[in-house]
Amino acid sequence: RLAFEELLAHHLSLRRMRQRMQQLAAPAFSGNQILLERYTSSLPFTLTMAQQRVISEIQRDLSRQHPMARLVQGDVGSGKTVVAACAALVAVQAGYQVALMAPTELLAEQHYRSFSEWLSPLDIHVAWHTGKSKGKARTAALQAISDGAAAIAVGTHALFQDEVGFSRLGLVIIDEQHRF
């Protein structure tokens, strides 16, 4: 009985949160998908049907004028990062910046390397920022993020410190949120 009541309370609180989110306004990302198409066609593999389905669902959510809250789950190596890159491209194509936050510096660096490699042929600047960033590299990253030169900022929770100012943040992607 206690377990049922706990699950019911959790379900009802999530439902209430979703209803409140529908009251909030968010930018609707719509328009052409040139960047997304160029990216997916450059991949050395074909997206799975599940990846294509999730990307379509994300595109649909991002085209609405309400915040998206979505959890993408999958095994290691199932392509969640590719799906995240596709979501980021939808926001970038619409003229917004993306923040990709990872729980550890190592994982953030892996994402930074992947996104830089994948998106540099599309002329998309990816900035790197963590709490350990120092000197000229830190200053350059903060400047690129604040003036919008960096379409995508990858890092740790340091991305959401007071010193970091985004020009036009439209999408936040959090990897392994349960670790924060």
SSE map:
Blueprint: H1 2-21, H2 34-42, H3 49-62, H4 80-93, E1 97-101, H5 105-119, E2 126-129, H6 135-147, E3 152-155, E4 169-174
Parallel strand pairs: 1-3, 1-4, 2-3
Helix pairs in contact: 2-4, 3-4
The low-confidence runs, each spanning 5 or more residues with pLDDT under 50, are: none
Gyration radius over CA: 17 Å
How would you spell out the order of helices and strands? Answer: HHHHEHEHEE
Mean pLDDT: 89
Helix content: 40-55%
What's the total number of strands?
4
Count of DSSP H/I helices = 6
Description:
It is globular, with a radius of gyration of 17 Å. The protein has 180 residues and is an alpha/beta fold. It is built from six helices and four strands. 47% of the residues lie in helices and 11% in strands. Helix 6 (135-147) links the parallel strand 2 (126-129) and strand 3 (152-155). The relative contact order is 0.15. It has a four-stranded parallel beta sheet with strand order 2-3-1-4, with helices on both faces. It has helices at residues 2-21, 34-42, 49-62, 80-93, 105-119, 135-147, and strands at 97-101, 126-129, 152-155, 169-174.
Brief descriptors of the model:
alpha/beta, four-stranded parallel β-sheet
Short overview:
By secondary structure, this protein is of the alpha/beta class. About 45% of the residues lie in helices and about 10% in strands.
